[in-house]
Write a structure and sequence with these properties.
This protein has 942 residues and is mostly beta strands. It has 7 helices and 56 strands.
Length: 942
């Protein structure tokens, strides 16, 4: 029976439908302990749900027909439409078959007593021990899946086949993707930790517990490749590496598949064949359809089938026979069918049931295409071939669906092309790792920048374009506003946020009008969602997408949406207020060394990730182009190089730093008066309208002189200056200003080219002399030494404006500020430390912020998480308190202890005895450990 509402946490929960028909073979284990039970957690499962075609696979020799098939699928399609009938499986069985001299190893004839079994010790060797509960189903662990590292074993098989344990370090047991870019230096090699598909599943099985004959020593290493990409979402590859692990030559071997496709109305099917061109022979693809669907509750018209894209020794399909389900289950009957031997005495009287047409090896199938009302099964094989000791051969079968025959063939053709490229096709960037922090009526999301620095494995190009963020209120079953095609079919969802490169690419993808490439917003690595409610759990996922290539007829592709919390790009979070008295974390920054100019903007996005460590910010190149972040306590460089003056960097240890810095040395960037008003050039007079400043050409000055900021401060005391340039200038005049090097907080000198009256006037040229005034401010008539190439950085003149008819020079208190560029260099170093968030003592007046939400509570309103499941929330609470609820008559209803440090507490609205609350008004008292109290009330109404 179908179990409605069953949801496995690993699954995209829109898949929670089941099969409603009985197995056609023996359906239950015998009275003895089943082999499955005896093998324990070596037997494992995998849910394949990235694309439209969904399957549940287990490692006992069947592609489908799992031990919990009444809960999950034997291939359901299409996923986006959900299950539309109780009989919603596309197949009953698809089983691996290996035969030699009467011995048939199969996985379908004895339920839970199969010939194939997991390789002993698979649990811990080929899939992980200690998996989270969310990964287990009916106590079976999950097979190793490429996108779920928690399923990878802590160890690996070395070149000699010995298992090497690596506690705490996980290893992928299967293959990584091949580098197919001819221009790459690693062309033809595996690229570690990268995969050709959106999900790859690995398992290893053998015939060590063959039920009828002695084991042959055949091992199968099975890798499954599935995709969420539109062009590959309707098929899955099953690659089987077949190895002779015995010391004997195995001659006259056959490899094949038993399959019972039940697509459409049960017992009303037709099947057809054609050749994809990958194998010799008449055909290598078989597909099935229901030519005349009369039951509206069954599948819509469609096509389902198998493509045998690679066979052992490249022999192609050599043998194929169909017969009615249920057929034979013993080796004595299966072997002559699989090897096309109608003379075998075991089937002499019934051979007409299994051999059709004049070709004894390949059945003629016209009858199946014209006469309906039959439930056909097929046995397709390749052979004979020999296997030497240690020799391996490969077989590849693709399981495929399509809307119609043309669509099915197009999908098979795509699969054929992808197989030739190592199961790879055009793909979107890898999804970034997404993190979430719940706040008061907001959720802060932040993510890594990995997709921006990874080339497309198919083209080798860096074609990243942007990010899309989706929000769900049903755990990821749906993702907000739907996008429908012209036929009303769901083709996507509208993102709640999108960020894309600011370039020439924007708007709808010209090859996919259902996908928006963005509006040149610029890339971000965080986003705050303000359209959320406190106390409601939300799921978020982020995808990265590329720009596509319309010239090559390639649309934009994206990474898959996440489906559970074990995937990097999926998170769940509940926004909630901080407790009363909450104090935000703080940051302390100290410029330890160097004199570079710039600012450090430090944001704490995730207080829970802050450490107690000290950090250093160091710089690369002079002028600095990049900066690095060093964890001093851990002695680790957590950011090796990141550009200065870049808007955003990824979040590290809960914080993010933006460095704004000068990019050159000695360039005058601004000249202002004491009020910060620009006074450079005649168009910018000072605040009084009396004067302005001309910076005059002077291509000299040493590094420290040129890269310092200066102030000319007008005072009554003034300073003594020389009046002519020379190597030993003589001090001759007192001027009404002082010159200060504000970078080093030191008074320096000046030379004023006087007109001969020894009185400072507007228009006279001023040379700033970067020599300490204590050395250069000599008495009148004395001289000092001057290096003209090093000591003079700036030449200027303070000019009179046309509206100042009296030519009044600046007066005491007025200033000229001169700002120059001084980029950071490797000599600059900043220290950064954080203080954690804390909670101070709550004042009684602050308790007035406490709220009950919703209030009044209306039963069966939209906020109820499920029908008749009530939840009231107390918000803006102290971090620790006791909440006592009374009726208006003073009767105690419930006492709730709140001590988790948050500002929210959820209550299911039941009394101390477990009774649901009656309609009415209730009083609640919130009491802190210090004895402060707040009294409020709420109502429960129909």
């Amino acid at each position: 029976m179908k179990r409605a509402g069953l949801i496995l946490l690993l699954m995209i929960s829109s898949l929670a439908f089941g099969k409603g028909t009985e197995k056609s073979e023996q359906d239950q284990p015998s009275g003895e302990i089943s082999k499955a039970a005896a093998q324990g957690p070596d037997i494992a499962y995998a849910i394949l749900n990235k694309g439209e075609l969904v399957n549940c696979y287990m490692n006992f020799g069947e592609i489908t027909d799992s031990y919990f098939q009444t809960d999950w699928y034997n291939f359901m399609w299409p996923k986006s439409k959900g299950a539309i009938a109780s009989n919603d499986n596309a197949t009953d069985d698809i089983s691996f078959m290996f035969a030699r001299k009467g011995n048939v190893i199969d996985g379908f004839t004895a339920y839970r007593q199969e010939d194939w079994s997991p390789v002993p010790g698979s649990w811990g060797r080929y899939h992980a021990k200690g998996q989270p509960d969310a990964l287990k189903y009916n106590d079976y662990p999950h097979l190793a899946a490429s996108d779920i590292p928690a399923t990878w074993p802590e160890g690996y098989d070395d070149e000699d086949g010995n298992f090497v344990e690596t506690p705490g370090v996980r290893h992928w047991p299967g293959d990584f993707r091949l580098d197919i870019n001819p221009a790459s230096p690693t062309f033809g090699q595996e690229v570690e930790n990268e995969f050709p598909a959106d999900r790859v599943v690995y398992s290893a099985l053998d015939d060590h517990s063959n039920l009828t004959y002695e084991p042959l020593g055949i091992r199968l290493d099975v890798q499954i490749f599935e995709y969420g990409r539109p062009y590959a979402s309707d098929f899955q590859f099953y690659e089987i590496t077949i190895t002779n692990t015995s010391d004997a030559l195995l001659d006259s071997c056959y490899w094949g598949y038993y399959y019972d496709i039940d697509y459409g109305e049960y017992e009303d099917e037709a099947y057809f064949t054609y050749n994809s061109g990958l194998n010799p022979g008449d055909w290598d693809v078989i597909y099935e359809l229901d030519p005349d669907i009369t039951d509206p509750n069954e599948f819509e018209r469609g096509v389902f089938g198998l493509g045998f894209l690679k066979t052992p020794k490249d022999l192609g399909i050599t043998d194929h026979h169909y017969y009615l389900d249920t057929g034979p289950t013993t080796d004595e009957l299966l072997f002559p069918i699989m090897t096309s031997d109608p003379t075998d005495p075991n089937i002499a009287t019934i051979k007409a049931d299994y051999f059709h047409g004049s070709n004894v090896r390949l059945d003629e199938s016209t009858f199946t295409q014209t006469q309906f009302g039959f439930d056909w099964v097929c046995l397709t094989s390749t052979g004979p071939f020999d296997l030497n000791p240690g020799e391996s051969v490969k077989a590849v079968v693709v399981v495929c669906a399509g809307d119609n025959v043309d669509d099915f063939k197009m999908n098979i053709n795509m699969a054929k092309g992808m197989l030739e490229k190592g199961y790879q096709g055009p793909s979107g960037p890898k999804a970034p790792k997404l993190s979430a922090v719940g706040g008061d009526k907001q959720v802060t999301l932040y993510w890594t920048d990995t997709p921006e620095h990874s080339p497309d494995p198919y083209s080798g190009e860096y074609d990243f374009e942007g990010y899309q963020i989706f929000r769900s209120r049903d755990g990821g079953q749906s993702w907000g506003k739907e996008i429908l095609d012209g036929f009303g079919s769901l083709v996507g969802y509208v993102p709640v946020a999108q960020f894309d490169l600011d370039n020439t690419i924007s708007g709808l993808d010209p090859l996919n009008a259902n996908f928006n490439l963005g509006n040149n917003s610029g890339i971000a690595h965080s986003w705050v969602d303000m359209e959320v409610e406190n106390g409601v759990e939300y799921a978020y996922t982020i995808i990265a997408y590329d720009r596509g290539d319309p010239a090559s007829n390639i649309q934009s592709f994206s990474s898959s949406k996440g489906g559970n919390s074990l995937e990097d790009n999926f998170v769940t979070v509940m926004p909630k207020p901080n407790p009363l008295g909450y104090v935000d974390p703080s940051v302390t920054v100290n410029h330890q060394s160097g004199y570079g100019k710039g600012t450090l903007k430090i944001e704490v996005l995730d207080p829970s990730q802050l450490t107690d460590h000290a950090y250093q910010i160091a710089f690369i190149d002079s002028p600095a182009t990049d900066f690095m972040i060093i964890d001093v306590d851990a002695q680790d460089t957590i950011l090796a190089a990141f550009p200065v003056n870049t808007s955003e960097m990824p979040v590290l240890d809960g914080f993010r730093i933006q460095v704004t810095a000068d990019e050159s040395f000695g360039k005058v960037t601004a000249v202002t008066d004491e009020n910060g008003k620009s006074v450079q050039t005649a168009d910018n007079p000072d605040s009084t309208g009396s004067w302005y400043v001309d910076i005059l050409p002077w291509p000299r000055g040493g590094f420290d002189a040129l890269t310092s900021d200066y102030e000319i401060r007008f005072t009554n005391q003034g300073s003594r200056v020389a009046t002519a340039l020379s190597l030993n200038p003589e001090v001759k005049e007192t001027v009404p200003f002082e010159v200060w090097n504000v970078t080093y907080d030191e008074q320096v000198s000046a030379i004023v080219i006087d007109d001969g009256d020894l009185t400072f006037e507007e228009g006279e040229q001023i040379y700033i002399v970067n020599i300490p005034y204590s050395e250069s401010g000599k008495q009148i008539g004395e001289s000092y030494s001057l290096n003209l190439l090093e000591d003079i950085p700036i030449k200027l003149a303070i000019m009179n404006t046309s509206q100042d008819l009296q030519k009044q020079i600046p007066v005491e208190g007025q200033q000229v500020h001169i700002f120059t560029t001084r980029a950071f260099t490797p000599s600059d170093m900043f220290s950064v430390t954080f203080s954690h968030a804390s909670v101070r003592t709550v004042q009684k007046s602050e308790l007035d912020e406490i709220r009950v939400v919703p209030n009044p509570y209306v039963v069966n309103a939209a906020w109820e998480v499920a029908k008749n499941v009530r939840q009231l929330q107390f918000m803006y609470l102290p971090p620790e308190c006791v909440i006592t609820i009374f009726t208006t008559r003073g009767e105690l209803v419930r006492r709730l202890n709140h001590n988790d440090g948050s500002g929210i507490l959820s209550w299911n609205m039941t009394s101390e005895s477990g009774q649901d609350l009656a309609y009415g008004i209730y009083i609640y008292i919130v009491k802190t450990p210090e004895g402060k109290e707040f009294i409020g009330k709420f109502a429960l109404i129909k």
